[in-house]
Specification:
The complex is a heterodimer of chains A (about 160) and B (about 200). Chain A has helices at about 15-25, 30-45, 65-75, 110-130, 130-135; strands at about 1-5, 10, 25, 50-55, 60-65, 85-95, 95-105, 140-150. With about 160 residues, chain A is an alpha+beta fold. In chain B, helix 2 packs across helix 4, helix 3 (about 60-75) packs across helix 4 and helix 4 (about 85-100) crosses helix 8. Classes of the chains: A alpha+beta (about 160), B mainly alpha (about 200).
Chain lengths: ~160, ~200
């Protein structure tokens, strides 16, 4: 910090002052850029496998995108403060859902085995609501649960 | 089992308060609401860095920032958290900026571009004018710096990254960060000295 010619007021070094101004500066147009990023992100295609949901007696079929399944599972597995999903993997063979892999971050102190049972039950409930073939017990899906981290607090926030 | 069930319904509650790590977990699973929070939390600093790095051009800065964030959205499923999210995002910006810089011939700075950069209003109009001129002078001085000196200086002095974080963002050793910063600071101080 320097002092000006009058010796009365402190005057900041010019580089120091310019740096402070640069830190305070927000280039214009950010809101438009952010909206454009989100629009483009939504348009990006993800890996997508069709999963057979139902076959009617007349032979007409209903398939569900694996993206839809992952979105619904992610939403459902984010309702409990004991754990949060870290990864969800669907194994699909010939339009048939074989396995759901769930990687979880758990809250410290949670009984992991009980938590895994709860997660399996939630996953199967979502799948049965979405895929009538499962609800009719015509097919079975295995749910593999892996705890990949334990955190102190609500894993959805920390 | 110790269970704490949230009373909040829905899928996007309280995301603004979530840590970067929690947001990344959700965004990896293609949660757009979580990604939007990441964009709003880190995007403005990425954009500011990109504009200054790209010679004060808001057009180039916007392009670099958009490409960096889209690249981040694509790459999040493979993000392993070895560096912080902030450092990783700055690395994306730097790479995109370097790509554009490599494929473009140098152009003189357009002074008009700097006038598009907004600052919070101040009560002292004279100070505001002086600050704008200082900022222009700083940008001109920055433009004279070699690429890595400019990057290191901006990340340290404007964005507040540590030496280690800068090293990770630019993929260079910490010792090189110190060297680039030292030389950059010396040149900028000399260029700005006429404003004393």
């Amino acid at each position: 910090m320097a002092v000006n010619g009058q010796g009365t007021e402190p005057v900041m070094d010019p580089l120091e002052r310019a740096t402070a101004v640069a830190r305070e500066t927000e280039p214009s147009g950010w809101a438009v850029i952010a909206d454009d990023v989100m629009r483009r992100a939504r348009q990006l295609r993800r890996q997508d496998d069709p999963i057979l949901a139902d076959v009617r007696p007349d032979g007409s079929r209903t398939v569900v995108s694996s993206r839809v399944v992952v979105d619904l599972l992610r939403t459902d597995l984010t309702q409990d403060a004991s754990y949060a999903p870290d990864d969800l993997t669907l194994t699909v063979t010939g339009e048939r859902l074989d396995t759901v892999g769930v990687a979880l971050v758990a809250a410290f102190g949670v009984d992991l085995v009980t938590m895994a049972d709860d997660v399996r039950a939630r996953v199967l409930a979502v799948l049965e609501g979405l895929l009538p073939r499962l609800a009719d017990a015509r097919e079975q899906v295995s749910v593999d649960v892996a705890v990949v981290d334990v955190v102190d607090g609500d894993p959805r926030r920390v | 089992m110790t269970r704490t069930t949230s009373e909040d319904a829905g899928d996007s509650w309280g995301l603004e308060d979530a840590s970067d790590e929690a947001l990344v977990r959700r965004a990896k699973l293609r949660d757009e609401a979580a990604f939007r929070v990441i964009v709003d939390r880190h995007g403005p600093a990425m954009y500011r860095y990109a504009v200054r790095l790209m010679r004060g051009s808001t057009h180039d800065g916007a392009e670099v920032t958009q490409e960096a964030l889209i690249s981040a959205w694509r790459s999040l499923p493979t993000f392993e958290g070895r560096s912080s999210l902030k450092t990783w995002l700055f690395r994306m910006v730097h790479r995109r900026a370097a790509d554009i810089q490599r494929n473009r011939r140098p152009v003189p700075i357009d002074d008009q571009l700097l006038s598009h950069v907004a600052r919070p209003a101040v009560d002292n109009p004279l100070q505001d004018v002086l600050d704008s001129e200082l900022l222009e002078a700083l940008q001109e001085a920055l433009d004279e710096l070699p690429w890595l000196q400019r990057s290191c200086w901006l990340l340290k002095e404007v964005e507040g990254l540590s030496y280690a974080e800068i090293g990770e963002a630019l993929s260079i050793p910490v010792g090189s960060v110190r060297g680039h910063l030292h030389r950059g600071r010396r040149v900028l101080a000399e260029r700005m000295s006429r404003w004393r």
